[in-house]
Amino acid sequence: MQTTTPEPLPLFDPAELMADPYSVYARLREAGPVHRITGTDGLPAWLVTRYEDVRHAIADPRLSLDKRHAKPGGYHGFALPPALDANLLNMDPPDHTRIRRLVSKAFTPRRVELLREPVRRTADALLDSIAPLGRADLISSYAGPLPITVICDLLGVAPHERQDFRSWTDTLVAPDPARPERAKEAVRALLGFFTGLLAARRLAPADDLLSALIALRDDEDRLTEDELISLAFLILFAGYENTVHLIGNATLALLNHPEQLAALRAHPSRIGPAVEELARYDGPVPLAIRRFPTEDVTIGGVGIPAGETILLSLAAAHRDPRRFTDPDRLDIGRDATAHLALGHGIHYCLGAPLARMEAEIALAALLDRFPKLALDFPPDGARWRPSMRARGLLRLPVRY
Question: Does the pTM exceed 0.70?
């Protein structure tokens, strides 16, 4: 193990990272496989940049997701109420294994497949509403409303409750630094909402995922109240934010690469492989969930002590020329199934089939409806969320 610990590098210039993140990631990746940096919380962390190291680390059982393994005075993260914090993104086996096994009994391929037609109808209805306008912001009018509608259908959120639901979610997805109290208010509101919804479903079960999760049994095992609420919260965020960004980023990438857009229009049956490549090329999650070594580990030849914070750069890994030929080129004919945008190993996303289906339907419907779809701003004028955690557009003005 490396015996010297380098001083942490300062946080990257936010403007540089937002303007050209992949150049920053490439510079770091080629300079070395692991870097000691200063994280957004001002604390030191280890950034892993190369594909093989990132892929191995995601599945390494010595790298814990449980914040209790962080060293004293280290990572503390965003404080959530216990009822929301007990979710799969903060768990290791055996708790992770137990909950994932139970959830997989309810979140089945059949349940996802039953959503296909509702997703298609929702996409068509949203496109109907903007078609007469000739121009629109695709994030607010399409990429945003589609996933939240799907998640509400999945969880059983009634139509008259969805406006508040989306407002709370948007507040947490894009918090206002000048008004931090709003995020706390949204957390409290969502906690109260899910608590009430679970109580209602216990009294009157419906044909939705929450009712199915409540009814789960595995011998004497079942999900606790906090686990149910945390799962609902996780499904909301994983199913909403990431899908919005995936659809938006993919649309921008295609419009910025007209030859790839033309190839997809000529062969619409390639939409599945195209979504895999688009997730690799400019995915919604630049960094995997932070890890904490339960013992001293070596990654890329660099020794990292137990309890330190490790950040795995999916964005850097997806542009690693050691794994992907000519990685900065968008190529919908590429076999990109090795991407890590949906996780790997025991941390592979349970909702991956739903995310893929939504992205495929959303893009196919959009391209079919608007054959003259074009950006309504300069090619370099995209506005990105100022975040290292999420890679997503604030707006995507288009004309058609």
Answer: yes
